[in-house]
Amino acid sequence: MNDCLFCKIVSGDMPSAKVYEDDQVLAFHDIDKKAPVHVLIVPKKHITSVAGASDADLDICTHIMRTAKKLAADFKLTDGFRIVVNTGKDGGQTVDHLHFHLLGGRSLTWPPG
Question: What is d(CA 37, CA 79) in angstroms, rounded to the nearest whole number?
Answer without folding.
Answer: 13
